[in-house]
Specification:
six-stranded mixed sheet; 2 domains; Spore Coat Polysaccharide Biosynthesis Protein SpsA, Chain A; alpha/beta; about 10% strand
Length: about 325
């Protein structure tokens, strides 16, 4: 493994409200992670491209320029993170060390899954179907919603992006060497003059793959909360059910936080399911056992023994001799 001497986590905060939200909710989970793994933490508060027309190309595109930023271009590794991600810092390993390869580390979205969703949509499309159903309980007369029936490669082609790109990358987390890829990403920034339906995500995802640069990361380094909720807690999209059980959303999102490393609250600002639960996460204890049984942690040394292979064999021998203990693998 290469000696990564200087590495930084980078994000962009434009506007006082975003700075305040970052300081209140996000930094308390990023700062301990940065200190634990030896990162500088850089929160930019001005556009890297001051001439950007944000009416055509949203702020999201600015991430493509961090590798040529004068203060960042000489790092060994840069980790871009959207500013709506919480880190389970006590458990999450070093993402720069986990990045294997010379390309750009990123997490791909789940492929279309008709077994899960039925023949009418992929897993990601079902998220939007559920969201539209939730919204239509409040406003049933909204105009129809259109869903493309295609795999990721066909999706790119429909939008005029023809090349080798079988996956859809969630570009909220990127890991790369700025000296190797800073100019490449800046070139992608210059190539496109407008947002796609998901801002920069579709064209950047396409370009990374089409140029052979994708180094897949463990999905726990960028788990979208909305898709996690869809898979494990789909009932949260029912407003009536959620409002009838006020603690349900908090319990679900806190359980999710303890099952992943980086939990990403991508989505529309103040959305009741995909975005607002960020405020409900309690990052002070890393284990799901402490969440469910908060008063029993001190009992663990008396109740549980976690052993190696030799200790396990000894415990099994004790059971054979009639000891009243439980043995688990």
């Amino acid at each position: 493994m290469a000696d990564i001497r200087r590495k930084a986590i980078v994000t962009l905060l434009i506007g006082e409200a975003y700075v305040e939200a970052f300081e209140r909710f996000i930094r308390p989970t990023w700062q301990p992670y940065a200190e634990r793994h030896g990162y500088d933490l850089v929160a930019l508060t001005e556009l890297i491209d001051p001439n950007a027309d944000t009416a055509k190309k949203s702020l999201h595109w600015q991430k493509l320029l961090i590798g040529v930023h004068p203060a960042l271009k000489d790092y060994d590794k840069l980790v871009w993170m959207d500013a709506d991600i919480l880190i389970n810092h006590r458990l999450a390993p070093c993402i720069a060390s986990a990045h294997i390869g010379n390309g750009i580390g990123a997490v791909t979205m789940p492929p279309p899954d008709t077994d899960f969703c039925g023949p009418d949509g992929s897993r990601s499309a079902l998220h939007m179907v559920m969201e539209n159903l939730r919204a239509r309980t409040q406003n049933p007369d909204r105009n129809p919603s259109v869903f493309l029936q295609a795999d990721h490669a066909d999706y790119y082609r429909v939008l005029g992006l023809d090349g080798e790109a079988p996956h859809l990358i969630n570009t909220g987390v990127l890991v790369f060497d700025p000296r190797r890829h800073g100019a490449t990403l800046a070139g992608i920034y210059m190539k496109y003059d407008r947002d796609f339906i998901d801002f920069e995500m579709t064209p950047l995802s396409f370009e990374i793959q089409n140029q052979g640069l994708l180094d897949p990361l463990d999905p726990r380094f960028n788990t979208p909360w909305a898709l996690h909720a869809l898979t494990h807690y789909p009932f949260l999209f029912n407003d009536d059910l959620r409002e009838a059980h006020p603690d349900l959303l908090s319990q679900c999102v806190n359980a999710a936080f303890r099952q992943v490393w980086f939990l990403h609250f991508a989505g529309t600002r103040n959305h009741p399911v995909s975005k607002r639960p960020l405020d409900l996460v309690d990052p002070t204890c890393p284990r799901i056992t402490d969440l469910v049984f908060p008063d029993l942690a001190e009992k663990w040394p008396h109740w549980f023994r976690f052993v190696d292979g030799e200790g396990f064999k000894q415990a099994c021998a004790q059971v054979d001799d009639g000891a009243d203990i439980d043995v688990f693998y």
